[in-house]
């Protein structure tokens, strides 16, 4: 059996290496230089590439040889990649994506300006995009505290595979589960997807705190208050908060809010040192999903009148409306002093 990975970024290669310990893996990339590196140097993204991994530029061959496929590409390019693969995908294929991002799609091909309020109906998860663009019926996602470098170093870690189909979960489990890579199961794919997406916002905030040497008390405050914001936002979109209490939720949140290996965390650190968001984006070698997710969350908060002070502070920073000290002062002076207020039923305004 050959498993397929779409995307040769850090996480894609790390995931391929995990699977390659059991069987052959075919990696599809659109970059000839990456394919050459994998073939000749057996290196990519500062990771060794297992001998069972082969790279290909041929999407038709890729889809023809792989029944279980893991798309791991940036959310901004996800639909384009699915359109590229669509003519070669069949209903028997199973796709389990590992992309922690969302897309905004307004009616009549309007372009979102990154600021105006948006309704939840205009938010697309990656599993929804797969179903829209292909004839694949069985879709899943994987999400959890999966820092690529730690996976490459063969440290113990875990993930959640979520799907409405037991066959998809079983296939993903068979491909990935090992003595050091734990795989947990969920049928709530929508909630698991959102858990992986929204934690990136708080990773940026935690990076700012770390960059300012605020210590462990501040980090704990950010994680817990950030968790509150994530739950409120997810419930507004119709997600079940139970998914956020496990590996894909609080587990991933803790990892990305505590590690220099997290791209989103490193963005926060650089903001704390005085760099602008544009400078940071222009020098990052891989996509940082948390930047766009923060703007998207803020736009949803506008629409549904949610109190998301951390998200708001980050948005003001990204839009150059304030500096880091001002954002921190506004955050610390925010009047909301309720501790656990995210277990209540969403307000009626969220249905508008």
Question: Overview of this structure, please?
Answer:
This protein has 352 residues and is of the alpha/beta class. Helix content is 48%, strand content 14%. It is built from 15 helices and twelve strands. It has helices spanning 10-20, 32-41, 59-65, 75-85, 126-133, 148-152, 166-176, 189-211, 215-236, 247-256, 263-272, 277-283, 289-304, 309-318, 324-332; strands at residues 2-6, 24-28, 43-44, 47-48, 53-56, 68-71, 94-97, 103-104, 123-124, 138-143, 157-163, 181-186. It has an eight-stranded mixed beta sheet, sandwiched between helices. Strand 6, helix 4 (75-85) and strand 7 (94-97) form a beta-alpha-beta unit. The chain is globular. It starts with a strand and ends in a 20-residue tail after the last helix. Mean pLDDT is 94; it is low at 346-352.
What features would you highlight for this structure?
alpha/beta; single chain; 352 residues; 15 helices; 8-stranded mixed beta sheet; 14% strand
End-to-end distance: 48 Å
Output the strand order for the largest sheet: 5-2-1-6-7-10-11-12
For the residues shown, what is the average pLDDT?
94
Instruction: List low-confidence stretches.
Output: 346-352
Count of runs of 4 or more consecutive helical residues = 15
Beta-strand residue fraction: 5-15%
Structural class: alpha/beta
Please tell me what the overall shape is. globular
């Amino acid at each position: 059996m050959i498993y397929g990975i779409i995307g040769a970024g850090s996480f894609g290669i790390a995931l391929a290496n995990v699977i390659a310990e059991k069987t052959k893996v075919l990696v599809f990339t659109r970059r000839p230089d990456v394919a050459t590196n994998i073939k000749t140097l057996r290196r990519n993204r500062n990771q060794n590439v297992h001998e069972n991994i082969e790279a290909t530029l041929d999407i038709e061959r890729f889809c023809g040889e792989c029944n279980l496929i893991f798309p791991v590409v940036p959310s901004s390019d996800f639909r384009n990649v699915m359109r590229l693969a669509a003519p070669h995908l069949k209903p028997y294929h199973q796709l389990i994506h590992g992309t922690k991002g969302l897309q905004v799609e307004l009616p009549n091909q309007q372009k979102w300006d990154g600021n105006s309020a948006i309704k939840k109906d205009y938010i697309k998860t990656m599993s929804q995009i797969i179903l829209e663009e292909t004839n694949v019926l069985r879709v899943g996602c994987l999400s959890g505290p999966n820092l690529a470098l730690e996976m490459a170093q063969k440290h113990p870690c875990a993930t959640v595979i979520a799907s409405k189909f037991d066959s998809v979960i079983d296939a993903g489990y068979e491909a990935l589960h090992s003595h050091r890579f734990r795989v947990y199961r969920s049928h709530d794919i929508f909630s698991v997807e959102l858990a992986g997406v929204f934690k990136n916002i708080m990773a940026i905030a935690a990076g700012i705190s770390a960059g300012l040497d605020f210590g462990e008390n501040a980090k704990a405050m950010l994680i817990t208050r950030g968790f509150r914001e994530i739950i409120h936002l997810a419930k507004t979109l119709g997600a079940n908060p139970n998914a956020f209490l496990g590996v894909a939720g609080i587990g991933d949140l803790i990892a990305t809010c505590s590690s220099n290996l997290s791209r989103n965390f490193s963005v926060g650190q650089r903001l704390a040192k005085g760099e602008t968001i544009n400078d940071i984006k222009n020098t990052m070698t891989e996509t940082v999903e948390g930047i766009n997710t923060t703007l998207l969350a803020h736009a949803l908060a506008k629409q549904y009148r949610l109190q998301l002070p951390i998200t708001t502070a980050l948005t003001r920073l990204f839009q150059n409306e304030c500096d880091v000290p001002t954002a921190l002062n506004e955050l610390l002076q925010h009047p909301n002093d309720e501790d656990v207020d995210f277990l209540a039923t969403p307000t009626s305004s969220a249905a508008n």
